[in-house]
TrEMBL record:
It holds the Pfam family HTH_48. PANTHER family: MARINER MOS1 TRANSPOSASE-LIKE PROTEIN. Residues 13-58 form the Mos1 transposase HTH domain. One of its GO terms (molecular function) is nucleic acid binding. This is Mos1 transposase HTH domain-containing protein. It comes from Graphocephala atropunctata. InterPro entries: Mos1_HTH (IPR041426), RNaseH_sf (IPR036397), Transposase-MT_Hybrid (IPR052709), Transposase_1 (IPR001888). The lineage of its organism: Eukaryota, Metazoa, Ecdysozoa, Arthropoda, Hexapoda.
Length: 356
């Protein structure tokens, strides 16, 4: 959705921040409110927090403070010209920008780009699939349905959710680049590391969980595949696990959140879920960014596996079980709770992928 108000004065935005802060609105919600009205590039979340702190510390002036020294060479006309130049070539450098505006210093141009225009240099991000308009429409529909229900039912709705998925767990998982970073002097020789691939030896792990923790963990026997029949057996085991571990949860109603893998949407599976009187939460295709197991549980598990070498299936199973049971209840609650801001962001960015 395009911004309702274009190019507002800085003092106007600051006045809105002061007003909302005085009402007790959280900085993250203030940032979302002003972005909805003024557009994505109006002000960063960090700058909103800075102004909230300033107003709480007693500041009342929403205008820039008077500064001593030479008058600024930056004006609205210059900022607009720089913006037009940047839009023509998003891969510009400050040096190439200087060639277009030689009368201004590199530092002035850098300040215009980063402060006045609020640009940041970002690299492209890998996504599971290039979403079509149909995919985005489906994601928007799911987001609307979820957020409306959360608005009506609140935390009780999240308490009903049971989610799960499958993932491969390898014997050897290489360290990520970030995990291998070290503090060193600038003069120290650079370490080199051999490029590793994920081990071909691996086992399939299925995990179901809710806000309180893990409900069911299963490991697929070798030379077997997950099909509708085996998945139905897993769901029967899940129902027994809920009955044993979550007293009263079945009677309150289960909202099952799983992806659209073929065994999950087979008629046999649907019939079983219907016989349980469970509800299936709509999950759009090609949307791991809206699946708690993908964006939270398995993401942290794989990070913890980074750099480890496990010897056999039993060692893998032991490691996974110990890691899952060692996580506090807050960890699982956070994973489910993230659905709310993620669906909200999906709605605000018109169905595109939600960043990490």
């Amino acid at each position: 959705m395009p911004p309702t108000i274009v190019s507002p004065a800085d003092c106007e935005v600051r006045a809105v921040i002061r007003f909302l802060s005085a009402k007790g609105v959280k900085p993250i919600d203030i940032h979302r409110e002003i972005v909805e009205v003024y557009g994505q590039n109006i002000m960063s979340d960090g700058m909103v927090r800075k102004w909230v702190r300033a107003f709480k510390d007693g500041r009342t002036n929403v205008h820039d403070e008077e500064r001593s020294g030479r008058p600024s060479v930056v004006n609205e006309d210059l900022v607009q010209k720089v913006d037009e130049t940047v839009r023509q070539n998003r891969r510009f450098t400050i040096s190439s920008l200087f060639d277009c505006f030689p009368q201004y210093s590199h530092s002035v141009l850098y300040r215009i780009v980063t402060e006045n225009l609020n640009y940041r240099k970002l690299c492209s991000r890998w996504v599971p699939k290039m979403l079509t308009d149909l995919h985005k429409t489906q994601r928007l529909g799911s987001a609307l349905t979820f957020l409306e229900r959360y608005h009506n039912e609140g935390e009780d709705f999240l308490d009903q959710i049971v989610t799960g998925d499958e993932t491969w767990v390898a014997y050897v998982t290489p360290e990520s680049k970030q995990q291998s970073m070290e503090w060193r002097h600038s003069s120290s020789p650079k370490r080199v590391k051999f490029k590793q691939t994920i081990s071909a030896r691996k086992i399939m792990c299925t995990v179901f969980w809710d806000r309180k923790g893990v409900l069911l963990v299963e490991f697929l026997p070798r030379n077997e595949t997950i099909n509708a029949a085996s998945y139905c057996e897993t769901l029967k085991n899940l129902r027994r696990a809920i009955q044993n571990k979550r007293c009263g949860k079945l009677s309150k109603g289960i909202v099952l959140l799983h992806d659209n893998a073929r065994p999950h949407v087979a008629n046999q599976t649907k019939d079983l879920i219907k016989s349980f009187k469970w509800e299936t939460l709509d999950h759009p295709p090609y949307s791991p960014d809206l699946a708690p197991s993908d964006y939270h549980l398995f993401l942290h598990l794989k990070k913890h596996l980074g750099g480890r070498r496990l010897q056999d299936d039993n060692e893998v199973k032991t490691f996974v079980m110990q890691w899952l049971t060692s996580q506090a209840a807050e960890f699982y609650q956070e994973g489910i709770q993230k659905l709310v801001p993620r669906y909200d962001k999906c709605l605000n960015i018109h169905g595109n992928y939600v960043e990490k």
